Amino acid sequence: MPNRDEKILVVGACGQIGVELTLQLRKIHGDGNIIASDLREEHPLLKGTGPYVSLDIMNKETFHVLVLRYNITQVYLLAAILSATGEKNPTLAWHINMQSLLNVLDVAKEEGLKKIYWPSSIAVFGPSSPKENTPQHTTIEPTTVYGISKFAGERWCEYYNTRYGLDVRSLRYPGLISYKSQPGGGTTDYAIEIFHDAKNKGKYTSFLNADTYLPMMYMPDAIRATIELMEADASKISVRSSYNLGGMSFSPKDIADEIRKHIPSFEIDYTVDSRQAIADSWPRSIDDSKAKEDWGWKPEYDLERMTKDMLENLK
């Protein structure tokens, strides 16, 4: 049965994660209890499924009014400028990624909201972090403005929890792959583009080297992890910065080989660009044992199962 006691605001509901998370939350809590919001026009997949409002999260007063008007009890803040896009305008990326979080944390503290969700990323890790099975607690020296903003955000989340008792929860997402929404300007987006090009063109030009291994996750696992974290009893949450989250690790060559099992004529070539340096600074695989230990995280999709599902569902 849907939980009718919560009124949840999803900020950035039309983005790569937001669309699918909003739809799943509506199944759990009831359509009318999930308020979707974004700067852009409502996503076609959200139309007719529940309330939608236009919101600029950078306007703190407008956000505050919205929280009061809808009696919001939880906020999922998904709005952000991602890694590759952020490098084109670092000061804008820093401003949007930081101020949006501070606006939400301030209003949540003031109004006594029950829970806040804010995503971090593997981008917090830098060249000095261990590449294999990167631990939950390790050297963190990000080299992109996206990673810097996410690391700073993690510290703010922990601060508001420790200082004010605010129940803030977070996951360090790996690269996310989905057939329902378009890439959002991230370095791992090649793993979405490759499926589209395989279906539409039969070939793909990768901007990363053939053997560039990165942590990845299929969107259904990411959505499930997010909701499982948010539904876990607060006593089980020992990490108030952001949990490492693992799914699978693969390279462009690996994914191309898997696609060829379904499309034997598929071709891939490589024209490396500036995103390679970003990828090289990130982990090759993630140790998410803390998430498994604290709230029972377990991924369901590997590369083989994900590839089959992506190619079946892509229009």
What's the short version?
The chain folds into two domains: 8-175 and 218-244, NAD(P)-binding Rossmann-like Domain (Rossmann fold, 3-Layer(aba) Sandwich), CATH 3.40.50; 176-216 and 247-285 and 301-313, UDP-galactose 4-epimerase, domain 1, CATH 3.90.25.10. It is 40% helix and 15% strand. It contains eleven helices and 14 strands.
Chart the SSEs and their pairings.
Layout: E1 8-11, H1 18-29, E2 34-38, E3 52-54, H2 60-69, E4 74-77, H3 83-86, H4 90-111, E5 115-117, E6 120-121, H5 145-164, E7 168-169, E8 171-173, E9 175-177, H6 190-200, E10 203-206, E11 214-218, H7 219-231, E12 243-244, E13 248-250, H8 252-260, E14 267-270, H9 275-280, H10 289-295, H11 303-313
Parallel strand pairs: 1-2, 1-4, 2-3, 4-5, 5-7, 6-8, 8-12, 9-11, 10-14
Antiparallel strand pairs: 11-13
Helix pairs in contact: 1-7, 2-4, 4-5, 6-8
Q: What can you tell me about this protein's structure?
A:
- This protein has 315 residues and is of the alpha/beta class.
- The protein folds into 2 domains: 8-175 and 218-244, Rossmann fold (3-Layer(aba) Sandwich), CATH 3.40.50; 176-216 and 247-285 and 301-313, UDP-galactose 4-epimerase, domain 1.
- The protein is 40% helix and 15% strand.
- The protein contains 11 helices and 14 strands.
- Strand 1 (8-11), helix 1 (18-29) and strand 2 (34-38) form a beta-alpha-beta unit.
- The longest helix has 22 residues, at 90-111.
CATH fold descriptor of the largest domain: Rossmann fold
- Overall geometry comes to globular
Kindly state the number of beta strands.
14
The strand line-up of the biggest sheet is 3-2-1-4-5-7
Reading off the top of the CATH hierarchy, the class of the largest domain is best stated as Alpha Beta
**Structural class by helix and strand composition:** alpha/beta
Number of helices: 11
Note poorly predicted spans: none
Radius of gyration: 19 Å
Mean pLDDT: 95
Give helix % range. 25-40%
Q: What is the helix/strand order?
A: EHEEHEHHEEHEEEHEEHEEHEHHH
Amino- and carboxy-terminal Cα gap: 32 Å
CATH superfamily of the largest domain: NAD(P)-binding Rossmann-like Domain
Strand content is 5-15%
| Biggest β-sheet description | 6 strands, parallel
How many domain units? 2
CATH architecture of the largest domain: 3-Layer(aba) Sandwich
